[in-house]
Amino acid sequence: MSHNEPAAPHDDAVPAAVPGDEELLRRSYHGKKDRVFLRSVQGDYSLGDELARLRAQPRVRKAEELGFVDGPQTYSRHYVEPKDGITQTFHLHLEEYGPGGRSQKHGHVNEAAFYILDGEGYEIHDGVRYDWRAGDVVVVHNNCVHQHHNASSEKPARALVIKTKPMYLFMNMLFQKMVEPRPGHPAPGGAGFEARGEEPDFNHPEGGY
Asked: In DSSP terms, which residues pair with 138 in a beta bridge?
């Protein structure tokens, strides 16, 4: 299917839930209802204490110290978000899509950019399909209902996600709607897949060009 064409319906678009899906969702990061989107900034009126605290924060977040959450089709490693105390208005995380995997389907006010690190797949934005591959950047515009899909039933895909959701929430632009949660069961071809803890390079030949 080419870009900008309506997505064709397919039988496995919304598979029937299996026992345990709802419980998995409740325990998952994306099932939490009490996430910290904005943290308190408090201290002396001069904010001297807050500046000292910020300057003492780590400038490098080590991947090996951060695990992946959720699955078994889409996994996330959250590098920076307000609850960590490092930033207030910025959120950056890594998405890992298992073979045949797809993300939750939802919409929100804030924009987001997905830099595709490896693999190939496609988006469904407001019912329209857009294909992507490693090296592309996917832009999710404001108020777009969207879902991310790995097009391969054999290989994973990976994207770095950058968004300023906390800033939008700070401005009281609160709309966010979950249309379809992340699946709680593996996709066909994805049974037994685990998120890759390291950063393998599938896009360049060994030894360089």
From this structure: 114
